[in-house]
């Protein structure tokens, strides 16, 4: 039903996603949407096994997780943080708008963990698609994705859950 | 020859990196990282690491580390390092840290754990990663607080022992505590020579640092926009020699503050060391006081300009005869995320921080250094 309401190119892309159906969302879709719809937003995204509803995580919780102070979920599963490289626009936007930390400050914290051995820094992956897959396939994983405006998010999430057995939780509702 | 061996180390680091990036990608449970950096120093006045008055490449750092999550509560971490720095460090491969990290308590807003083994000492903002070009503000550490040149760095950087760590989170800030109890360790002849000078060191057969204790309380506000820390160390140095025993008791305090803004970072650290020296020839109490202020400007995402002024007094009772002043200007450029090229200029008045072991003659009061360093990390 949503497809009919959308402008044709967007509906075509959304149709493709449904066809792909494996939760693999081409990075190009976000930019196309960004041009034609209200700006996409960033959503924190966790693997279902974490048992956490990311909507309930406070700013303090998110900072503790992404700074790798907090290491385990409430169900004792280790937290595994996945991010994009420092210079990626999505990573920068996530740091500034969600964590409200300058990316270089976060990098300093991670480098301190790495080179003093005091924690396992986030795993850096090469693309938004890899990030999405890593989170979907790794128990305890958390990261972030570019989510679309509300009407689309609902559609995607519905299909995502339909097609991906290990469905991630915490999409923007 | 030295440069050649450094280049071989670099090639090894590069080949290790391609293997390791594949490893760290598989899962978040094991991560392997490392770095290699090679410096070039050209100085006027005094040598700084090797024969830098003629230009030297005798400054290299390389390390490989692994961090493994053995269970949700237990991490294992290790790093081996090789460092070549004039006569201060000779390129031997050493275990930099090797410990088990047990997070005993963790809840919504706080946590507490222990590390057992060889751990880095938290002291000031930069001590626990002081050998990594990518984590320090300039090629040479602020001499005033981190004592790079005079033998104290080897005592400061790591302890064999137990480290307790804890933190408390609030919505807009976090507070951390780290306390390290070190075992007694013996000091090499090179360190003794750098600490006490070559003449005095020739009378010392054996020296120990007895049970050092390090503590750091730090507070970070608004996602690290403002950071504050107070660090302390308490240590006893004992030596036996041909003229009887010597003992040096030292208490150090460092106050640290940093403001991080979008383009600017301002850092200030103040250090006070009180020392009490006892020997067969008499006793001496010395207070060393030092501080620096530093500003950094991010010209672009990958270019940082740094300016710093340092002041140090080796004897507070004679401030005008024992003071040194350092003026530092530097640029860091990361042409790619894994690479860094840094260039600094140091203007030094006084002799604090100049490594004594790189000289046969008395030091001069004026030193200028041009330093260039290329670093690679993975």
What does this structure look like?
The complex is a heterodimer of chains A (173) and B (378). Chain A has eight helices and four strands. Chain A is an alpha/beta fold and 173 residues long. Chain A has one domain: Periplasmic binding protein-like II (D-Maltodextrin-Binding Protein, domain 2), CATH 3.40.190. In chain A, strands 1-4-2-3 form a four-stranded mixed β-sheet, sandwiched between helices. The radius of gyration of chain A is 16 Å and the shape is globular. Chain B is mainly beta. Classes of the chains: A alpha/beta (173), B mainly beta (378). At the A-B interface, helix 4, strand 2 and helix 6 of A face strand 1, strand 2, strand 3, strand 4 and strand 5 of B. Chain B: This is Porin. Chain B: Keywords: Signal. Chain A: This is PBP domain-containing protein. Chain A: It comes from Zhongshania antarctica.
User: How many domain units of chain B?
Assistant: 1
List SSEs of chain B in N-to-C order.
Answer: HEEEEEHHEEEHHEEEEEEEEE
Please name the CATH topology of chain B.
Porin
Helix count, DSSP H or I runs of 4 or more residues of chain B: 5
| Largest pleated sheet of chain B | 16 strands, antiparallel, barrel
Average pLDDT number of chain A: 73
Radius of gyration of chain A: 16 Å
Label the overall shape of chain B: globular
Output the strand order for the largest sheet of chain B.
1-2-3-4-5-6-7-9-10-11-12-13-14-15-16-17
Query: N-to-C SSE series of chain A?
Result: HHHEHEHHEHEH
CATH architecture annotation name of chain A: 3-Layer(aba) Sandwich
The count of helical stretches of chain A stands at 8
Assign the CATH topology of chain A. Answer: D-Maltodextrin-Binding Protein, domain 2
The class by helix and strand makeup of chain A works out as alpha/beta
User: Kindly, what is the distance between the CA atoms of the first and last residues of chain A, rounded to a whole number of angstroms?
Assistant: 18 Å
Signal peptide (chain B): 1-22
Protein name (chain B): Porin
Keywords (chain B): Signal
Organism (chain B): Zhongshania antarctica
């Amino acid at each position: 039903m949503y497809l009919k309401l959308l402008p044709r190119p967007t509906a075509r892309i959304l149709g493709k996603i449904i066809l792909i159906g494996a939760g693999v969302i081409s990075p190009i879709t976000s930019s196309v949407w960004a041009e034609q719809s209200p700006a996409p937003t960033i959503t924190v995204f966790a693997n279902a096994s974490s048992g956490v509803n990311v909507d309930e995580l406070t700013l303090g919780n998110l900072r503790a997780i992404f700074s790798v102070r907090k290491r385990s979920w409430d169900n004792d599963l280790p937290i595994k943080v996945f991010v994009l490289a420092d210079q990626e626009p999505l990573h920068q936007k996530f740091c500034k708008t969600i964590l409200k930390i300058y990316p270089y400050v976060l990098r300093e914290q991670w480098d301190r963990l790495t080179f003093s051995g005091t924690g396992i820094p986030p795993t850096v992956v090469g693309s938004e698609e890899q990030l999405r897959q890593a989170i979907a396939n790794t128990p305890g994983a958390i990261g972030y994705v570019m989510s679309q405006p509300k009407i689309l998010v609902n559609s995607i999430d519905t299909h995502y859950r339909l097609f991906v057995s290990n469905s991630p939780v915490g999409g923007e509702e | 020859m030295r440069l050649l061996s450094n280049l071989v180390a670099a090639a090894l680091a590069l080949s290790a990196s391609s293997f390791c990036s594949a490893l760290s990608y598989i899962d978040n449970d094991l991560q392997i990282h490392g770095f290699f950096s090679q410096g070039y120093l050209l100085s006027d006045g005094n040598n700084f690491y090797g024969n830098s008055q003629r230009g030297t490449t005798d400054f290299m750092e390389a390390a490989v580390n692994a961090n493994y999550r053995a269970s949700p509560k237990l991490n294992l971490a290790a790093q081996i390092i090789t460092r070549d720095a004039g006569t201060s460090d000779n390129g031997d491969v050493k275990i930099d840290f090797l410990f088990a990290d047990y997070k005993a308590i963790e809840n919504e807003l706080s946590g507490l754990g222990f590390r057992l083994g060889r751990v880095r000492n938290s002291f000031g903002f930069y001590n626990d990663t002081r050998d990594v070009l990518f984590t320090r503000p300039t090629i040479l550490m602020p001499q005033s607080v981190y004592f790079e040149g005079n033998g104290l760095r080897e005592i400061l950087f790591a302890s064999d022992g137990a480290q307790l760590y804890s933190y408390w989170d609030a919505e807009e800030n976090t507070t951390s505590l780290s306390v390290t109890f070190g075992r007694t360790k013996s000091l090499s002849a090179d360190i003794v020579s750098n600490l006490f000078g070559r003449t005095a060191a020739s009378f010392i057969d054996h020296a120990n640092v007895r049970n050092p204790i390090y503590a750091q309380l730090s507070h970070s506000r608004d996602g690290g926009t403002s950071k504050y820390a107070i660090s302390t160390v308490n240590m006893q140095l004992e030596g036996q020699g041909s003229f009887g025993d010597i003992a040096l008791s030292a208490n150090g305090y460092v106050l640290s503050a940093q403001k991080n803004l979008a383009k600017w970072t301002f850092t200030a650290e103040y250090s006070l060391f009180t020392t009490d020296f006892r020997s067969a020839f008499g006793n001496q109490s010395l207070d060393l006081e030092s501080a620096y202020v530093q500003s950094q400007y991010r010209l672009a995402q990958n270019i940082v300009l740094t300016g710093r002024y340092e002041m140090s007094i080796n004897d507070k009772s004679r401030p005008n005869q024992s003071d040194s002043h350092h003026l530092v200007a530097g640029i860091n450029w990361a042409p790619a995320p894994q690479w860094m090229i840094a260039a600094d200029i140091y203007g030094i008045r006084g002799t604090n921080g100049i490594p004594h072991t790189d000289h046969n003659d008395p030091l001069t009061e004026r030193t200028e250094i041009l330093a260039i360093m290329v670093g690679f990390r993975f």
